[in-house]
Amino acid sequence: MLPTYPIRTASEGTPGARDSRGGRPSASPARALPDAAAQPSVASPPLVGRRAVVVEDEGVIRMQLGRLLARAGLSVVATAGNGPEGVAAALRELPDLILMDVSMPGGEFDGLEAARRILAERDVCVVILTGLGENVYEAEARAVGASGYVVKPFIQETLIAQLEAAYRRWEKQGDGGADGTGESGAATGEQGKDPPPGGGGQ
Asked: How far, in Å, are 32, 51, 73, 81 from residue 6 at the CA level?
């Protein structure tokens, strides 16, 4: 099971930052994301009103991601904890965007296989989510047709920007659909890094 990474805001900084007195690095405990109602809106115009499914085996992270997507204006219509559940939710709810973790030991198959099965049935924007050090999956994410690729840990604002870029990329592949070539242009994101230049264009 992947380690649980806190989702941070840009203002929270990074773990181990030195305190204002220049002493040893201060402890930075993981913070649960507060209720969406208590957070300022970070609505992203391309994402507002879109339907989303979150597939992540860590319950805390799954809940945090759902709240974050809601703040971005998405309607989270279902969540799932493993690959088979993710496929079932995607084919039942027909979302516009799916945020899919890779390593989910509790199911019969992982997130990449789940994405492949979903995309074989219908056209949808799939963004692959994976742990730090697992960027070896990027080529496989492209191969299955994912529109984006995000590496944990990440900050809230960066994740939303990466989801927006992936959704725009997916839309540009042909009136909101895949162009049939298998080229997804999946974007890799890491904490503190900006999305590709152009705000999600090719």
From this structure: 7, 24, 21, 18
Asked if residues 132 and 90 have their Cβ atoms less than 8 Å apart, the reply is no
Amino acid letter for position 104: M
pLDDT tens-digit map of 162-182: 999 999 999 998 554 444 433
Residue 149, Cα to own-chain centre: how many angstroms? 7
Domain ranges (residues) in the chain: 39-189
Tokens 């080229």 appear where?
A: 183
Residue 143: pLDDT above 50?
yes
For residues 54 and 65, the answer to whether their CB atoms sit within 8 Å is yes
In the block, residue with structure tokens 């997507």:
69
Q: What angle do CA 147, 153, 159 make, to 5 degrees?
A: 45
Cα 44 to Cα 21: distance, rounded to the nearest angstrom:
38
User: What CATH code would you report for 39-189?
Assistant: 3.40.50.2300
| 47-71 pLDDT, tens digit each | 999 999 999 999 999 999 999 999 9
